[in-house]
Amino acid sequence: MTEDELAETSEVRLLLESGEFRRIREGLNTGLGEFAEAAGMTKGSLSRYERGLRRPRPGEAKRLARTLRRLLGATGE
User: Other C-beta atoms within 10 Å of 28: how many?
Assistant: First the structure.
């Protein structure tokens, strides 16, 4: 994993732990299922990450970060 990828996964984990990830996702008017599908994971997995019941593995965190970045870019934020 590159330094950039490591930073990306760490940032996503911090967003999840603080509750910011969910707030951002909801601010984008993106439902749990829609975001999970775009990130290539199940709705249940994303829900567990957002509720702090599980931490995403590096590959999952990377997919979450890329999906979030793509959606933020699509809205111009």
Answer: 16
DSSP 30-56: --HHHHHHHHTS-HHHHHHHHTTS---
**End-to-end Cα spacing for the chain:** 27
Which class is domain 3-72? Answer: mainly alpha
Structure tokens at 25: 């996702």
Chain-centroid distance, C-alpha 76: 18
The two structure tokens encoding residue 24: 């951002």
- pLDDT per position as a tens digit, 11-25: 999 999 999 999 999
- pTM of the complete model: 0.88
Q: Calculate the dihedral angle through the C-alpha atoms of 61, 11, 13, 28, rounding to the nearest 10 degrees.
A: -80
